[in-house]
Amino acid sequence: MKRCFLAGAAILAFAASGHAQLRDSERYESCLQRIEVDPETAYEDGLAWRFDGGGWPARHCVARALIALGEEEEGAFRLQALAEAPDGGPTAMKVVFLAEAGEAWMVAGYPGEARRAYSRGVELSPQSAPLWLGRARAAAELGEWAAVEADAAQAIAHEPQNYEGWRTRAEARLELGDLAAAERDMERALDLARTDDETVAVLLIRGHINEARRTGG
Length: 217
Known about the structure:
Layout lengths: L1 H15 L5 H16 L1 H13 L3 H14 L3 H13 L6 H18 L2 H14 L4 H13 L3 H14 L4 H13 L3 H14 L3 H20 L2
Helix pairs in contact: 1-2, 1-6, 2-3, 2-4, 3-4, 4-5, 5-6, 6-7, 6-8, 7-8, 8-9, 8-10, 9-10, 10-11, 10-12, 11-12
């Protein structure tokens, strides 16, 4: 679902840039969709398109295909380079590239690199709750719980109904020992949970809070 959403965002931003012909837009959409079913062919097509003057859309397809092929580190590096390139597309696309790079760095096991990618995305789109939550997830992997709390708070400020923001901040406050605040956030996350998995995740935090109180932690 996340990949489909990002592909849709990419296609819309591409169309909004105004410089593409309909044929190029269709080729871009085709490449992104092919990644889901045949990433190797999508990679080869993307390379051919790039050498044929495909510009940033072709480079994006190549990077995304590499990630789908298990080359997350290389794909993330290319996405970040594309986001910083003068010809790397409109700002809306650069934000997409950085979000995808952050996710790829996380999968590859480099939370520090992921946090840098998300941070750059936040500079370009400071009101994006998903980018703030990406930063928070990376900080959690690094054990930097004060940063997790701060980033989750930003996500909540920009998107108050965001379940993940409240759940993430509850977890951070639990780790920081602020049990009362963690419980308040946990209850809010429970109110916003929409699936069984989300509910279970919040109830696990509640269990940890109760355990911490019993043991004086």
